[in-house]
Amino acid sequence: MAAARWSSTEFNQIIKADDLHIAPFREDGMTYGTPTWIWCVEVDGNLYVRAYNGQRSSWYQAALREKAGKIIAAGMTREVRFEHVTGAVNEQIDNAYKAKYQGSRYLGHMISDGSKNATIRIVPLNLKSAG
Questions:
Q1: InterPro entries annotated for this entry (predicted)?
Q2: Residue 91 is inside which H or E element, if any?
Q3: CB-CB contact of 86 with 49 (8 Å)
Q4: CA of 82: how far to CAs of 23, 102, 105, in Å?
């Protein structure tokens, strides 16, 4: 089965709106956590977020543990899964943060090792089957 992909319309709306709220499941795997506003960036058609407070962030810990939840952005709510990100793609993610959030006093922190070590890729779940 091919991995789910964002529709280009949805993806562009999410990136441009810059109002993404992330809500991983709680420990029961059924109840969503409190939505947390977070910066998002795009690299090669993938949606990435980082925890400002690094690996101590409660939403980040829940995303790693539960691996699923929802996002709310651009007037849409989407069921998603979360994947921890490491490796060379982090340099591209840094560059995406620099381009999108240049001039922000928070940028340096978001590309620091602490936040970089708490990078998540958000992947949509297929809500509808073709056919």
A1: UCP028498 (IPR016888)
A2: helix 89-101
A3: no
A4: 11, 26, 27
What stretches of 1-131 adopt beta strand conformation (E)?
21-24, 36-37, 40-43, 46-50, 68-73, 76-84, 119-124
Q: How many residues comprise the chain?
A: 131
Token output for 36: 């947390």
Burial (CB count within 10 angstroms: exposed 0-12, middle 13-18, buried 19+), residue 76? exposed
- Cα–Cα distances (Å) from 39 to 4, 46, 124, 129, in that order, read 22, 14, 17, 30
pTM, two decimal places: 0.92
Which pair of structure tokens corresponds to residue 68? 């699923």
